[in-house]
Write a structure and sequence with these properties.
Length: 418
């Protein structure tokens, strides 16, 4: 659980196809793909997935360097997990943003398009990247420590601009001209915003000064509405990565921000009029539009440090289909083997998506949530049991891939819907 200047987002969208390759590989645990599933076959559900792959690096330019050859061990392991689950549309969190999409292209061409560990290559002709708030200097003392500068005073925690960014890969065309980004949306412009309060003063919600609130952005990374032209019609892929609700003090500035970053999508799919994007266009998602909300939300329904009810803003939304939570046998096994605080958790262990040390222990942090206009045909978490040879891809600390697990949901139109 990890934790701008211009009004136009600089985005990169590639239309160059990746060469496909033949071959066969065993399915991932809990993953079943019908014949002909994938690009060009209209009879099967569409698989959406999210994966906090921990492909962030400590220094600017390091990710491009690592991905410039096909030999980075972590990237190969991450790619194999993706290949074995074979999502049609995928969000990767904690993937450093590089202008022009160079890092995203290198990962696709050098890793995803090359079979890893006996798995088939996966073909993503389309991807989308855009700037994020992490590491972008605010010029303000946002952590109130008396100094300006450093990762805590960036618009989102980060040591350089773009650290902990994200990328969307798709087998289906991305409607690039219709993408909406919300990198610059100000937190104070959300009605009823949970603005943090400095407990040392009598004034309410005063952790940030009026000057700071005039600049402070809601998104710790960004919120993107990426429309995908799938065989089941256009689906709006609503992606983000809210800040972890820790690494702060009694003012709970990260916890309150996390809850409102989650709330943003709940309001957006309800058609909230207060919302404005980075081009200045107002309003939420059009009524009746199909969507899938995805990302590391850094919030478990019952456990961990997020504000109570934070993720329920999505799970309990009348517009969200949360009827079939993704599960894995590996998560349930890990909870029993690791013991400790995991045994006292309230959320079902088989729904965990992240393998954290204590505190907080293992949590459900990552979500793929379709709209009610989409039927969930299947779902799962890539977390093999230890007896499965593929468990080497997830491993134990220090993890060969990530402390998060890939989460996927297969969706289809509901019967009678157009």
């Amino acid at each position: 659980m990890r934790r701008i200047l211009a009004l136009s987002a600089v985005a990169a969208l590639t239309l160059a196809a990746v060469p496909s390759a033949a071959g066969s590989s065993p399915p991932a645990p809990g993953v079943s793909r019908g014949g002909g599933h994938g690009h060009g076959h209209h009879a099967d559900p569409v698989r959406f997935a999210t994966f906090n792959a921990s492909l962030n690096r400590s220094n600017e330019g390091e990710l491009v360097s690592d991905l410039s050859t096909p030999d980075n061990a972590q990237a190969r392991t991450v790619a194999e997990i993706i290949q074995r689950t074979d999502p049609d549309v995928l969000l990767v969190n904690e993937f450093d943003y590089v202008a022009g999409g160079e890092a995203a292209r290198l990962f696709r061409d050098h890793y995803l398009a090359v079979g890893q560990g006996g798995a088939d290559p996966v073909d993503y002709p389309y991807f989308y990247v855009a700037p994020v708030n992490t590491g972008v200097p605010s010029g303000l003392d946002l952590d109130n420590n008396g100094d300006v500068g450093g990762p805590n005073d960036a618009f989102g925690f980060g040591f350089f601009p773009g650290q902990y960014g994200m990328v969307v890969y798709s087998k289906y065309p991305i409607k690039a001209k219709q993408v909406r980004t919300f990198q610059h949306f100000l937190w104070k412009d959300m009605p009823g915003a949970r603005l943090p309060d400095d407990p040392a003063t009598a004034a309410p919600a005063d952790w940030y000064s009026p000057e700071e609130l005039d600049a402070f952005r809601l998104s710790s990374k960004s919120h993107w509405d990426v429309p995908i032209r799938t065989p089941r019609g256009t689906v709006h892929f609503l992606v983000s990565h809210p800040t972890p609700p820790v690494f702060d003090g009694p003012e709970d500035r990260n916890g309150t921000r996390n809850a409102d970053e989650i709330r943003f999508w709940a309001d957006y799919v309800a058609g909230a009029r207060y919302v404005y994007d980075d081009r200045g266009h107002r309003g939420g998602l059009a009524r009746g539009a199909r969507f899938v909300i995805a990302g590391d939300q850094n919030s478990d329904p019952l456990d961990g440090d997020s504000i109570p009810g934070a993720i329920q803003q999505l799970l309990d939304s009348p517009r969200v289909n949360a009827s079939r939570p993704p599960t894995s046998a590996g998560a349930a096994e890990a909870s029993l083997l690791q013991g400790g605080v995991n045994l006292d958790h309230g959320s079902p262990a088989d729904q965990d998506t992240a393998d954290f040390a204590e505190p907080p222990g293992n949590l459900r942090a990552d979500y793929v949530l379709p709209s009610r206009k989409l039927r969930i045909a299947d779902s799962g978490v890539f977390w093999p049991e230890r007896a499965d040879p593929l468990s080497a891809l997830t491993g134990v600390f220090p993890f060969p891939s990530s402390d998060h697990r890939l989460v996927w949901v297969d969706v289809d139109r509901k019967r009678g819907r157009r």
